[in-house]
Design a protein that fits this description.
With 400 residues, this protein is an alpha+beta fold. The chain folds into three domains: 91 residues, Integrase, DNA-binding domain (Double Stranded RNA Binding Domain, 2-Layer Sandwich), CATH 3.30.160.390; 91 residues, Tyrosine recombinase, N-terminal domain (DNA polymerase, domain 1, Orthogonal Bundle); 186 residues, hpI Integrase, Chain A (Orthogonal Bundle), CATH 1.10.443. A four-stranded antiparallel β-sheet has the order 1-2-3-4, with helices on one face. The protein has a three-stranded antiparallel β-sheet with strand order 5-6-7. Helix 2 runs antiparallel to helix 3, helix 5 packs across helix 7 and helix 6 runs antiparallel to helix 7. The longest helix is centred in the middle third of the chain and has 21 residues. The radius of gyration is 28 Å and the shape is elongated. The protein starts with a helix and ends in an 8-residue tail after the last helix.
Length: 400
């Protein structure tokens, strides 16, 4: 089991020398006098050997782990770590790598995070920072290198670039606290990225406002199709054009997914929307209604023609009918309403952005998100629907 700084500090001398294992061959040796030092147990040519890695606390736990990693890397390359230490010194060989510091920072803080936030941080580490800097001593990472990475991310995903910069900032601060770095290079990147400016649409965002909105939707006396479109907008918070153009062939009831083709998306990429139990029940009711009328390929067909969806202004007109001004609520406002409340509820921002179809431009990263975060998005969409039903005080939670 890995050691902690507290365990090391509390290791008291005994009648004779003893050792504490940090795993993977790294040992803390405690002499009868109380002096502590590091040693690495390794094998070469079938024989067990030990290498001294320096005295504690001059060589910290993080430094010792970094030195262990560097030592074993030299062995794997067929070099003599002992000879290299004499040439470059312990500090250069054993400087804590960015990956080592990042992993220790992650392990220190992950228990305080939600599952979705933990997955988001892990993704940004694995997708961006660790491939570039994981094996590098953290003291050797330069300002131009980090800036280059962030600017590269910014080209396709500005918001992700800002979140990655914030993540690097926290890791460097942690490194300084642990004595693994002397300066936080992120501090010099304050205005290096363009501010992310988003267009804000009028929306009702407080829980009381949301509850009032639902009461008005329930009391809406217009078309049943339009009322259903309002509920569907609230449960799925997709763009108005994607809502009104929803087709039955896009609904996969078997796996509870709404599959929107790329040509219908603003970003021209296919999008998956996990369907909550409530959204599925709404769709089932619309199927029963459609069975009694002329068939239409659209979930929300026009009143004038079954071969066309509802008009682009229909939802906005319904919102005006319910008594809201354009400064209070719009068809696009369902997205801001959901985003605001989901962020306040502690859901990971990356999961929220993916659900809003604010995807990254890089095809590989988009594929990663598509494959790896759907489970979290399912969980969030169901929790969102349950939260809405809780505001209505008559909702029943259902399993995924």
């Amino acid at each position: 089991m890995a050691l902690t700084e507290l365990e090391i500090k509390n290791a008291k001398p005994r009648g004779k020398p003893y050792s504490l294992s940090d795993g993977d061959g790294l040992l803390l040796l405690v002499k009868a006098s109380g002096a502590k030092s590091w040693a690495l147990r390794y094998h070469t040519n079938g024989k067990e050997k030990r290498a001294g890695l320096g005295k504690y606390p001059k060589v910290s736990l993080a430094n010792a782990r970094g030195l262990k990693t560097a030592f074993k890397r030299e062995l794997a390359l067929g070099r003599s770590p002992q000879k290299r230490r004499k040439t470059v010194g312990v500090k250069a060989l054993g400087s804590a790598t960015f990956g080592t510091v990042a992993d220790e920072w992650y392990e220190t803080h992950e228990k305080a995070w939600s599952d979705s936030n933990r997955a988001g941080v892990r993704h940004r580490l694995d997708a961006y920072l660790l491939p570039k800097f994981g094996e590098r001593p953290i003291r050797e990472i330069t300002l131009p290198e980090l800036l280059g990475l962030l600017l590269d991310i910014e080209k396709s995903a500005p918001s992700t670039a800002h979140r990655t910069k914030s993540l690097a900032d926290r890791i460097f601060q942690f490194a300084i606290m642990r004595g693994d770095s002397d300066y936080n290079i992120v501090l010099s990147l304050k205005k290096s990225l363009k501010p992310v400016r988003e267009r804000h649409f009028a929306a009702l965002t407080t829980p009381r406002d949301v509850a009032d909105l639902m009461a008005r939707i329930e009391a809406y006396h217009g078309s049943a199709i339009v009322r259903a479109a309002l509920w569907f907008s609230l449960y799925t918070f997709q763009r108005p054009g994607e809502i009104r153009g929803a087709a039955w062939e896009e609904m996969d009831f078997g796996v509870k997914l709404w599959r929107i083709a790329g040509h219908r998306m603003k970003n021209k990429r296919p999008h998956l929307v996990p369907l909550s139990c409530q959204a599925l029940e709404l769709l089932e009711s619309l199927k029963r209604l459609a069975a009694r009328t002329e068939h239409s390929p659209f979930v929300f067909p026009s009143k004038v023609s079954k071969t066309a969806p509802i008009n682009a202004l229909t939802i906005c007109a319904a919102i005006r009918t319910m008594g809201y001004t354009t400064e209070q609520m719009t068809a696009h406002g369902f997205r801001a309403l959901a985003s605001t409340n989901l962020n306040e509820q502690g859901w990971d921002s990356d999961v929220i952005e993916l659900s809003l179809s604010h995807v990254e431009g890089n095809a590989i990263r988009a594929a990663y998100n598509h494959a790896e975060r759907l489970t979290e998005r399912r969980e969030m969409m169901q929790a969102w629907a349950d939260w809405l039903d809780g505001l209505r005080q008559n909702g029943q939670k259902c399993s995924l």
